[in-house]
Please model this.
Amino acid sequence: MNDLQKKRHTFAHLLAAAVLKLYPDARPTIGPPTDNGFYYDFAFSTPITDADLKKIEKQMKKTINTWETMEVRVVSEEEARAQFKDNKYKTELIDGIVAADQEITFYTAGDFTDLCEGGHAAEPKKELDMKAFTLASLAGAYWRGDENNDQLTRIYGYAFNTKEELDAFMVMREEAKKRDHRKLGKELDLFTTSDVVGSGLPLLTEKGAVLRRVLERFIVDEEIKRGYKHVYTQDMAKVELYEKSGHYPYYKDSMYAPIDVDGERFMLRPMTCPHHFELFSSKPHSYRDLPLRYAEIAKLYRYEQSGELSGLMRVRSFNLADAHIFCADPEQAGSEISSALDLIDFVAEKFGLTMGEDYWYSLSLGDRTDDKKYFKDEAAWDTAEDILRNVLEKRDCHYVENEGEAAFYGPKIDIQMKNVLGKEDTAFTVQYDFVMPKRFDLKYKNASGEDQECVVVHRSSIGALERIIAFLIERYAGAFPFWLSPVQVKILPITSEIDDYAFEVKKELEKVGVRVDVDNDSETLGKRIRSAQKEKVPYMLVVGKEEVENKTVTVRARDNQEQIKLTIDEFISNYCTNLI
Amino acid sequence: MNDLQKKRHTFAHLLAAAVLKLYPDARPTIGPPTDNGFYYDFAFSTPITDADLKKIEKQMKKTINTWETMEVRVVSEEEARAQFKDNKYKTELIDGIVAADQEITFYTAGDFTDLCEGGHAAEPKKELDMKAFTLASLAGAYWRGDENNDQLTRIYGYAFNTKEELDAFMVMREEAKKRDHRKLGKELDLFTTSDVVGSGLPLLTEKGAVLRRVLERFIVDEEIKRGYKHVYTQDMAKVELYEKSGHYPYYKDSMYAPIDVDGERFMLRPMTCPHHFELFSSKPHSYRDLPLRYAEIAKLYRYEQSGELSGLMRVRSFNLADAHIFCADPEQAGSEISSALDLIDFVAEKFGLTMGEDYWYSLSLGDRTDDKKYFKDEAAWDTAEDILRNVLEKRDCHYVENEGEAAFYGPKIDIQMKNVLGKEDTAFTVQYDFVMPKRFDLKYKNASGEDQECVVVHRSSIGALERIIAFLIERYAGAFPFWLSPVQVKILPITSEIDDYAFEVKKELEKVGVRVDVDNDSETLGKRIRSAQKEKVPYMLVVGKEEVENKTVTVRARDNQEQIKLTIDEFISNYCTNLI
Model:
């Protein structure tokens, strides 16, 4: 635990101390540090509200004055049980420590003692900046995260080294809130949910559907240009398929229950690989066919706990831009992995992402000592890891190495991205696979006419469409670049006499594929401009008598007061370029 | 039963008589007429083979000479049971007739007597043209179609009024066999199946995927041009959604078993309607928003018995070009239905289909006396049926009327198509719905600010993509028009020195979006031309030294010996037009 995490952990204790002072019959349970602060879960006898947080904060600021030091003491089982005899949660924790034959330690600051494993500021009063923390919110939580257990009240806090850091975080958080794709998704009418459809199964409205369609066609066309063969396989298959691939034991818990059809068990697919392998195996292949790149916008189903679901980011069904490249040998796999990274860099550039800042690569290696998690084949792991490292070394790219993060069938390159809150996450991966070709008997005839095993590269180019849409909504704060905008141009006729001309202009723009609306509502022009700005439409074309006479439009960008008069053709050739 | 069907039924009896003559211990069961002949199911003591069919045919031609008349006689239960005491199948049929309290009739010709309901040629020897029939094939069949019963041997025959009709049918059948989309799908490498994926779940290869992608983009773009809003909803939802729509009891048997998720039951959707209704209900609507046309390429799941499955034509999961149009009132619904038919005619023309010949409309009306099958609302049915009839009357189209074929929520127009065997089938429908708007409370604010119920039009434009692909494979016998062809152009360099130029030409064509391959295999040019013809590639470009020097290509169409020399630009502008 680093110093900041130790401080945050100490803040959690301080919170518990303050709560006990104010609510003596509350029962503290556990309180760890988090990425930006801390939380503590309590069993309250009567519920508290957000309004109580200020009071608790005030008490924390009072209590800290008595916290000169944080003392640790190893105690006997008896002493521990006596101290927490009225707290069944702590008693249960003690049971666990005793069962595991570990030391029981108490941490005491001021008059507050907690059962704890440690990791604290040694001199809380001196080290904790009481202006660098704030209590943030209340939430429900289950004891030990299990919904069959008691429901507890979780108090979240933010804490940093300095007030400046806290302020900066709060500003970023405010900005992130504004950019939250769930909030913008509603405001911009991009997606919605339905109770009778179900959680984690969002519906894309006509505007959200434009985002998906444009992204899907963009990536499919780009992949075809780069030699991928796009195919369509099925979203469900017999359980046997996932048993054959060996995925079943690993994915069982995140797959939906089987569906019985004529006595056979079918499953919604959690991954595409075995489907592409079956397609590959449906005909013989020669070395001249390789590398063979099967790609698909594949609908996948993964079970996620309802508490994990979030907008388009964490869903129960998603569409992955997936591909499996059948290679003749490790060298060819290396060259294909390099090409896959070229495509990823190309896509990232299209979204204005900077390597090393917005995204980077992480080389995930196998932990060779773990035979259960990793397929045993030292030589194959050596070859594969060398190839991946070489590919990365040769590129102008940022990457880190991580041991023990590989897939069970080989090492991989994770594409790491940072979201608006600065949080890092694996967006998708490029994987080297020397195991599946054995399981699926993926072979080709080499130049000497002999059967030879393929190496398979699994890769995505853009990840899941739902997730990249969520990411882009937040990145652009809903103000999408022209090519992605659901509505690209809005035409605003000043009066109803101009309607005909407005629709004429619309027709001209539609001819070149522009997504354009006319807003001839009875509202004032000012109101209609504000409404188009709120919708974040890239360009408004205001048209009145003068425009009709000169066959022009007055162009106004969404983020700009400036107005420019242009002919329709000029507008098209200067503004409506880069349509995808 | 018409005269031809009576003759076919008589042929079935004649077949049974001949079989009993040759195989006295065979047990005849049932033998009805079919669309192009007849069959009879037998229990044989030892299996027969295709080679035996000639012998049986010969015996039929002998036996017919004794069949001057066909006599009918009502018999007692006792006589019937005595006659068939050694035939448990006929005995079971007698049980059924007795239980239903019906007359038992025997039909006798020559020395052959069968238990039968009738429908025969009165004078078989005179009426049956023994040159106008043939025994076609053997197949396995279960007694009463139930796989738990005994397996029987079915003998199929074709029979017509004249030899000319039979010959014409056999020619068409041969042609249909050649065009069978399952056969061509394999030969042209368009789709495949996998035992571990499952029956009725075909996989589209890279070439088949082109057909789907091109058709999908064609119809989506055309619909958007015509004011449809394409959306994406989910392929599964809670059972409640289908209960709410009232579909559940009607579709239960053709839906897959529910999937349990966190104690809730989810189902794979058998139809799109309730999903679009939920999307509509997610926000308020004004009369100014209507008509609102939600469209989607919707993946649907329907359970089909494994015996019913066939290639891409009958599958367990398909993608329907679906739409639901929310209309302000019946008049608007009428106008939208008319526009939907415009789109259907447009698409049909694109496929070269002729109204009245290849396709026509069928107006399906409700049977008002059937309260169980049809929603009770006389006035609404009257209005809806008038509107549909008016729409059809006003068009230059062929249509027929069918009572009792409507959906439970309103009348519809079926789009009937003829396949290569001349068989008529409903390809898809346009439906008028006044029931779902009540169930889903589909309302909008009318011009006076009051809530008013919508009328919904359900429609497809092209049907299921899988099915239309199967239809088009058979229609074009795999020789797709240029815009649909998986590979549009194949470049054949005469020698390997020309390879560079071949790939240069490829690049030029790819720039304008042509799907093009280079075949520089070591085979002779003649062999490569034949291979491209077999693949039914629309154009081959042969390039040699002369072409390199003059920057030209020698164009050869798939169905033509003629060769034309053109510059690359000339080829593009003359041959690569109409890319979609």
Notes: The CA atoms of residues 238 and 262 of chain B lie 12 Å apart. Chain B touches chain A through 56 residues (CB under 8 Å). The mean pLDDT of chain B is 93.
